[in-house]
Amino acid sequence: MMAVAAGHAENTRLTDRVVGFIDHLRVNGFTVGIEECGGIAAHLGARRLTRLAQIRLELKTLLTGNREEWQRFDDLFEAYWLPSGKVRINSKRTTSPHVKNPLRQTPIWQDHLADGQPGNGDAPQVESETQNEATGDASGRLIAARQSIDRKTDLKHIVDPDEIRRAELLALRLAQAMRYRLSRRQRMARKGRRIDLRRTIRHALPRGGEPIELFRRATPDRPVHIIVFLDVSGSMKHYSRFFLQFVKGLVCTWMHSEAFVFHTRLIRVTDAVRDRNSARAMTRLALMAEGFGGGTRLGESLATFNRNYARRLTNSRTVAIILSDGYDTGTPQQLTDELAQMKKHIRRLIWLNPLLGWRNYEPVTAAMQAARPYIDHFAAANSLESLAAIEPELAAMS
Amino acid sequence: MTTSTDIAPRLANAGYVADDALATALELTLSLQRPLLLEGEAGVGKTETAKALASALDTKLIRLQCYEGLDASSTIYEWNYQKQLLAIRAREHEGQSADTIEKHIFSEDFLLHRPLLEAISQPKSPVLLIDEIDRADEEFEAYLLEILSDFQVTIPELGTMAAKSRPYVILTSNGTRELSDALRRRCLYSYVEFPDHARELAILRARMPDLEEKLAEAVIGFVQQLRKEDLEKKPGIAETLDWAAALCGLGVKALQDDISKVTETMICLLKTEKDIKSVPKETVSRLAGKAA
């Protein structure tokens, strides 16, 4: 009896520690609900204590939900349970709901995305090309800041923090609207090829089983599958922020979509971008995509995609969208090879180049020249309007 | 309660060598009766796990292969329309009333069981394998949530049918599409890696007991090294078994003594043109040397 009581006390202590461990996991980005927490506590309380290795495997099965968590689990477990183990990660919550502008919490983004806070001296400079555009001259910054957002305005010229946020929201909504218009699925159809037997018979019953009226069904449209590659190198600095929101809009609302960012290497960011908590999404992105604002190695990045992801993530309805200015430090030959390889896996390649919207720009860089033969749709993407213009390209496939 | 100490040997008896992580996951699936989601590269033995579990528990395996466009009627139930029409006609001649006919034609006799209904209608808990769930549409995935949490199906004409015995559910995914959080939360999770040297050797020995020990060692050493190469598609366990059988059939005794034969049989391991080109004879020779 004594032994049972002692065992029970031990279990209680263990359960307490497990609850602490679950909190530790949550701090590190795991999504563990209260229900799971209760279930695990009950499970451990109800069984005989086993070896630590066994508890570790059980908790791993119970608490992880995807590959990334599965791979990170062991380190986090050691950090929490083993005093002589790895250094405990004291990561602070960067995802407080009270933080109004999450980007200000992440220096990498602050720098790269040129968060236009007054007086930080980091705001994007209006370059000489502005004279070609609507916003005008060297004092364009102030003028642009006072103007309402025009869908035709070059995104580079939007510098006022409020306007930046509004433009971001517009980019997000634009992507969501595109998704809505493209994905409505028609299941019943008057001129469908197949007869809907179930419905026909149901409606025939009141008429004594005579199928007078025939109901038909058309094969539902398969939604377009989208893979977006966003260039976050230094030369894309002024555009990445808006494009990221556009990508977020596409990826969050599109059933079949994937997102990658690239600079000198390629990083799959689908999960981070999908994160509903935008502050956490930005933090995760910043941590994942270390090296923002550096050079671009487009060919190598695409090689990584072709090698590791293309087979799993593409199908005959895949449209790849590359958002890049095409300033590549790699060899044009590699870019050609990798694009050719990628084209085998996908249906269409859309390349959106923000510089194309500039009046005097010609895509003469070696990389752009090399890429041109493989691009199905090459368009400008320097304003919200030009982003919206890719919709017909996607609609043509659905 | 079934414990990991006895599930692993039972799986081994069924010809499946499970590592500790997988054995623990299966044990929890059995004790908590929650679905298990298995992810991992193609060829690591996810589908085999379900088959082995069914065999170890001596129960029925019901398999639902997912594909794009899969809908509820082809996975749960469907009325046998032709049979219903015939019955209506036959009963009309007998002069039965519409009410009686309707009651008759919407009975179990006319119901075609599809895998999910079949799984919850079994008297003894079966193993329900929902293979490659990532290939199915999101709508279907959402539909599955209800079945996986309540284990019951509602048929408008017959009412709700609750599970006679709760099936052990194993879902597999190759990562074609990201699965919803809702589905992940309802499942236990295990990521299946390629087997390590010892486990793969044990699998090979279990499947091909006649293979010479030295050759078996070399085969596994070679495949383990090959997986480290830059390949489009890494060879899975099934490929290893095929290759070992091919080598055996060609009478190869030691890999490094017969490099040309070994190179010829590489088609068992490498499944794309690019991979075959990227592993020339010299590489085969190097790997065979290492494996010896």
TrEMBL record, chain A:
SUPFAM superfamilies named among the record's database cross-references: vWA-like
InterPro entries the record matches: UCP010256, Uncharacterised_CoxE, vWFA_dom_sf
Renumbered residue ranges of the record's region Disordered: 110-140
CDD domains documented for this protein: vWFA
PANTHER family: BLL5662 PROTEIN, BLL5662 PROTEIN-RELATED
Protein name: VWA domain-containing protein
Automatic annotation (TrEMBL), chain B:
Protein name: MoxR family ATPase
Domain of life: Bacteria
Gene3D superfamilies, A to Z: P-loop containing nucleotide triphosphate hydrolases
Domain AAA+ ATPase: 32-193
Gene Ontology terms for molecular function: ATP binding; ATP hydrolysis activity
Any Pfam family matching the protein: AAA_5
